[in-house]
# Entry
Amino acid sequence: MDGAKVREFFCKIIREDEDVSVGVAAIRTLMEIIKHSKSETVQELETNLKDGINVMKNTDYPVTAINSGCELFLRFITLAALDTRCFSDCKKIMLDRGHLFIKKLDEARGKIVKLASKFIEDGSKVLTHSRSRVVLQALRKAHKQNKRFEVFVTISAPDNSGKQMCKELQAEGIPCTLILDSAVGYIMEQVHFIMVGAEGVVESGGIVNKVGSYTMAVCAKEMKKPFYVLTESFKFSRLFPLGQQDLPEEYKYTSSVRKNSDLKKVHPLVDYTPPAYITLLFTDLGILTPSAVSDELIKLYL
Amino acid sequence: MPEIESLSDISRLISDIQHKKFTRSYDIALRTEELLQELISKGHWKSAKELMNLVKTRIQLVRENLPQEATAPNIMRHILKVIREEYQSASKKKDEGQSLHELVTSTPSNVLDYSDSLINLRSSILDHLTEYKVELESSSDNIAAQALEHIHTNEIILTVGKSNTVEKFLKRAAKDRIFNVIVVEGAPLYAGHTMAASLAKSNIQTTVIADSAVFAMMSRVNKVIIGTHTVLANGGLRAASGIHAVALAAKHYSVPVMVLSHMYKFCPIYVGSHNHEAFNVCASPANVIPYAFGPILDKIEVNNPVYDYVPPELVTLFISHQGGNSPSYVYRLLSELYHQDDYDI
# Structure
């Protein structure tokens, strides 16, 4: 597959299926590359995949999710390659395991929703930020369990994705209020807990998410409200930022912005929330404390 | 119906717990272990899967009848893990549980269903359980053996109410060190009084204080050492009521809080919020205001909650027979103790 085809395939998945997260789309694209690849060695295949990853990173979708998904997939290739001697066997194993892998990724969200909906109790008030598919589904599930609760959603500038989230919640019949990003402090004393998604989870157990999440987490900590993160485990990535400056630029700005503007004057897309502000992470691996994230990554990359 | 009849063992345990025949969690732990040992040696099961289902129905029954009881289900959960391990080593198949590594490396062929009947499974599980029983019996000795690492000469230790594990721990330290113990009396049951009397008999300098005096005394305390009812999955505690206040006072004066806990007290369940109905129980209010007070009882409401939720930030260290662990490490202990699929039964 050449660059243009990869790009087309990747964008098509995202456009056609509203519910697929960018990371899963990236992994599916990589599987497609393997299927069509004519390479004869693992190294050649890896080069093909890396070219594919670069193409995807240069689309205007969030790089955070693409990166962690692809990182995991490359590890998957390396581990499969270690298990066999000849390339044709290896390719077969990759395709076999790949299907199972993608199936598990598809099941992940259901598992998280099941875990998280238990924490939404009757009469609670939930604050959430921006739009997250998994948070939306968790709230939906809790609503279907006949729990009465109220949701506050930040409008989430600059793309105002909170508006969309609010609309979707209201369509379900869940009482929902859109609030200003600057009203997070105002609303915090009323809510019982915060539930957000994540674009990526870093090695320290902190998260990379839509800008404003950090503000919310700091506020929540000050007012002693639990800050819950709902995220699939393929978003775990081996990055260890100590502060906002350590986040790679490709995470913070889309590729078109990076090429054309003075980055000092552009708003970042994401921020980094350190693990100290996070109460629990709900993942398909179970409910984890932030310190469990590095454990999982070490097991995988050892 | 044979199905119901076969559950009589667990029903008896439940009623014994309900009628407070066992007051110490250690007794419940041992009884549960013996009960399962009998089930495994005499019960009708052909494969590990059948046995696991037998155990699971028992866990469910206990959880339905005694939502606050953690020890008995935890022991059974651990035994489920033992069964899984023995099955895996006998059938030479591996199940790594849920992890990122497993997500990436699993193949369709190695899915375990525990349904093969293996010849030596019964005896190997029973062997493993015998070891486990020894571990249970020696647990409090092993915890007490660490006393000298934590208690130093001339220190002032504060403890709340009565815990057999703490009692043993302090007495062990007293053999080699001279130190002071402040016992918070723990109204309305005043278990602290018994505790203090017992410590004084072992020649430990003991002071009893009222619950309301905790904050005033905390500034001179070197360490708080307490027992707990359960350790929750996030590292928080379900402990005797009054302990949250003690832990907050300790935080204020930066006094370390150490919690002595047996492994069977580590519970893989999260409590969504501590106001959850299943979290607490209320005991008879007679201890708070005696019935003899008469007519005024009509006009007031009296509550006597048994437990406190203590958030993990207030705990410095858990001491189990394996040594000390911080609250953020509890998830790891849990994954060693139980299989992930058995967390929520």
User: Anything to note?
Assistant: The first strand of chain A starts at residue 125 and ends at 128. The two ends of chain A are 32 Å apart (CA to CA).
